[in-house]
Amino acid sequence: MEQRYVTEYRAKGRKLEGYAATFNHEARIADFVEVIQPGAFSGSLTGRDILALVDHDPTRLLARTRSGSLRIAEDAHGLAFELDIPDTQPGRDVLALAERGDLGGMSFGFTVAEGGERWTGNRRELRAVTLHEISVVSAWPAYDGTVVQARAKTPRLNIAKLYLETV
């Protein structure tokens, strides 16, 4: 499974929201450049249990789609998410760091679907991936331009609309 880091998140209250991945932004990964194309996640967002973790550590679970504590959707900007922060030690730690602006960003773990990538020289375009998890990361993201925000609990809304209203 591959992992990529991004930096777009917001922290307010008992929720984190933002973007775990952004489209059409170049990221240097080892000796190549990678770009995520719009629609790359669409095939893996329904019918799968996707986790929200801290630093890709499955023992530091924050939320999951199966329980409804993690909501994920693609929009024109990227892979938007909203998660309810649990009252657990990892949840309290993430919330405190997010509110202070100390988090490194967001990341995601994925595998590439067959035919889901296109290489041109040292440039890789991700066109179809299977998303396994998103992670809040405490260090450095690979992709710039992502947002995580903590906010007070509100009724579940369209997260793309919610993001646009809060920026």
From TrEMBL:
Domain of life of the organism encoding this protein: Bacteria
InterPro entries listed in its UniProt record: Peptidase_S78_dom, Prohead_protease
GO MF: peptidase activity
Domain Prohead serine protease: 12-153
GO terms, biological process: proteolysis
Alphabetized UniProt keyword annotations: Hydrolase, Protease, Viral release from host cell
Protein name per the record: HK97 family phage prohead protease
